[in-house]
Structures are given as C-alpha cells and as structure tokens.
Amino acid sequence: MLNTKKAKMILDKDYKIGEVDKRLYGSFIEHLGRAVYGGIYEPGHPKADEMGFRKDVMELVKELNVPIIRYPGGNFVSGYNWEDGVGPIEKRPRRTELAWGTIETNQIGTNEFAHWAKKVNSEVMMAVNLGTRGADAARNLVEYCNHPSGTYWSDLRRSHGYENTHNIKVWCLGNEMDGPWQICHKTAEEYGRLACETAKVMKWVDPTIELVACGSSSIHMPTFGQWEATVLEHTYEHVDYISLHQYYGNHEKDTANFLGKTMDLDAFIKSVIATADYVKAKKRSKKTINLSFDEWNVWFHSNEADRKIKRWSIAPPQLEDVYDFQDALLVGGMLITFLKHADRVKMACLAQLVNVIAPIMTSNGGGAWRQTIFYPFAHVSAYGRGVVLNPVIFSPVYDSKDYTDVPILQAAAVFNEEKEELTIFALNKDVQDLLSFECDVRHFEGYRVIEHIVLEKDDVYAVNTEANPFNVVPNKNGNAEITEGKLTANLSKLSWNVIRLAK
Ligand code: AHR
User: Fold this and answer.
1) pTM of the prediction?
2) Beta-carbon contacts of residue 407 (< 8 Å; ≥ 6 apart)
3) Which of 175, 214, 320, 352 maximizes ligand 1 atoms within 8 Å of its Cβ, making it the mutation to test the pocket?
C-alpha cells in the first residue's frame, strides 16, 4: 500500500508577518536585447499604438499587474548618458553600448518610458549611472523628472513636450557596483562614498524620493556581507533600501536540487537583514533599512546562445531564456520566500519583463505570449495582496546535492481583510508523489474554497512557444475543500497551487 506523504499548515488571523507592499510585484525593463526594441516598442507592428508601443504587450503586462518597473538597467545604466534619450528623436545619438556589446539607438528614453509605464498602470523605479558618471548627472535627472518648472532641467523637460513632472519616487543608486563586469566597477569604499554624496544631492533636489543602495549581485559574490556592511556604513542615514539580486540555473537538470534553491534565497535575505541591522546597531540609528530585491529570476537557458551574438548588433535576441515547467515552480517558490519576509522585503523586481529573461515573449512583427513563469507571478500579484500570515508548517523534508532538509511543502498565506479573502500559495516539491495537505483554518469561520488553481505537468521540460503558447497553463482542477475548519487538498507531485478562500 502506498504511504502518502502528509503536510500540515496552521493559520491564525492574528499571527502576522506583515503587510505586503504592492511593490513586491515589480519588474524590470533594461535597454538590453529585445526588451525595449522589439519588446515593448515596435513601430510598424500591426498592434503598435501611435507612439510605436505594442498594445498586445501592454495587455499582457497589465495582466501581470506590476506596480513598479525598474529602468533603464541593469548593467546598461553604468554607461548611459540619460541626456541622449531625451529631446527630438531624430537628433538622438547612436552609441556603442559597452555592457552588452550592442548599438543603442536611443529611440526610447526617459520620457517615452515614463509615458509607457503610466499606460500599463505602473510607476518607474529609476536607476542612475554611478559607473561612468556620478552625482551631477543624477541630481540633474531628478530635477528633469520631478521638478515642476522654472529651472534649467525642468524647463528642458517641458520643452520636450512633458509639461507635468514624472514624479518618480524610487531611485536606484547605480547597479551591481560590486561586480567586476560592471562598467566602472568600484570597491565597497569607493561606491559607498559616491552613493552617499549622490544620495544627498538627489534628496536635496527632491526630498520625497526613496533611494536604494547597491547590495551584492548575488549571495555568491566573494565580497558578499562585507560589501553590504561597508556600503551601509557610508550611506545609512541617506538611503532607504539595500538591494539584492539573485538568479538561479539548472544546468545539471536536477529538479529536486533546483527547487531547493529557495533555501539559498532565504539564507541570503536573512543575512542581508542581519547585516543592515548590525549597521543600525553600530550607528545607534532609529531608522531601519529595508530590502529591495530588484533583480530575481531563473537565468541560464540562453547563456550558450548569447555567446554567438554578433557584436554591435541592434536589439539582438539576448538573454531569451525559454522557460520550462520546473522554472515556473522555482519562480513560485521564490515568490513564497519573499512573502515570508514581507516585513523587510518591500520591493522586488522580476528580471525582466519582456523577451529578456522574461515572462512575456514576442516575435518581431508577430505575436506575444506567456512563458511558464508568467503564471505563478500573475497569481501571487493578483491574490497576494494583504497581510502575510505567520503559519506553522509541518512538512516532510528531502536532501539534494546542495541542500539538506528541504521541506517538500513550501507555502504562504495572504489574508485580504478588506475583500475577506484568504489565499494559500503552496508548492509540492516532491518529484514523485502527491502530498496530502491539511490546513487548520478554524479562525476563518464562514470561509469557503472559491478556487483551487493548479499548475502541473508531467514533463518538467515542457515550454510555451509562439507555435504552442498554451502547452503549460494552469487548470482549476484542484480538490481543496473545507470541513469543520479544516481545509484538505491533494497537491499533485511537482505542482504549484493557489487555494482561494472567501467568505
Ligand atoms: O538582468 C540582466 C542583468 O543581470 C542586469 O543587467 C544586471 O544587473 C544583472 O547582472
């Protein structure tokens, strides 16, 4: 007889981790590959609007419901002159783009992007160049974007046809400055000093903005830990967030180990919180620095293909990972990990949004479709708004190549008091067996299951393509039900589950 694996979760309305900041569901558009040109913007495409933005892409972005989008990079920003991208389009320079070895035509810049972001109901998270440039260019950009009128840069914006300010609230002080690949990479001391002085003048121009200092490019950087401590020693009183970036790959095609990587992510977040609080203690500060996880995703499928791309191409197909079913599971697991730290991780950006390691793909002149990873993101963005509850979870565990005691069940619950809805996100990481799931919901009297969405597929390598865009899609066949305050469900092997309860 089969010995079914069992996991249990206990929820209490009053046990809370914290309110979800909607900016946890942010994303990222970089001037890289076909993210901008051929992604969000393709003049002449049958579905392009009067400015050249693809309406089919806009619809999919709106479906993901991303409240904030980081722009314009990424590695790109460390060599970018923002002035190249404003003013009459025909006069904008073409530049060699050193981060990715392409030609940047500057057909899209700050104003067009801010316009597009508004159309998809999103705010811009603007990154400034602290590679080749510094405080002067950064403060001018804040003035150009946020100052109403009557000064050189604000009047220049108005003369470019943008009477109203863009009112950009969140600004990143450079990008991955700890990485030797970065244009004008810096030591923690060098970057810390520069970020501090840049932060000061940016806030003097507009005191309402929030600033993100660069943390490590991944937990595996040799300078990780010391980098955060040094940077925050310099910037603590002038910034609001420290950034984290992390991408995972599955080169070894080891599903169990791949799904275990959420353990690594969890450790990363905990260490950055500890480091930020260490600096807080040292400085006897009353202020708490929160976390902006402003680049995260799976990224490895396209590495080989990218090596073959011809240098100095315009908008070549770079970083076009085609995501499989198991990638979607890890993305779901990463989202659950962020929810677990909702008290400190206030912003996060799925990197990226269109074509470049993205949930949305397009073909030039053709269609737009949803990759497998689109679904868990869309689910959590739609139903993960409210308060994250602090659950007690009992789950069997497994060991993999790099991790021990990985819980088979990874789950989080978000309570939306206003809508009287409770949503449980649950991942069964078992590669073989279904998991019998039980959740104590006795504090949610009168609630019933309104939907149990499941993303499951026998073939972990299954993908969505333009020719077969609906190969991996969620179904509503989950069997969750409630009897006497107890929710039960069978979670099929390797499945992503969204169990929605409402009054
Ligand atoms: O998102 C792709 C790249 O990954 C970004 O440009 C960079 O910041 C990171 O290394």
Assistant:
1) 0.97
2) 7, 393, 395, 396, 397, 429
3) 175
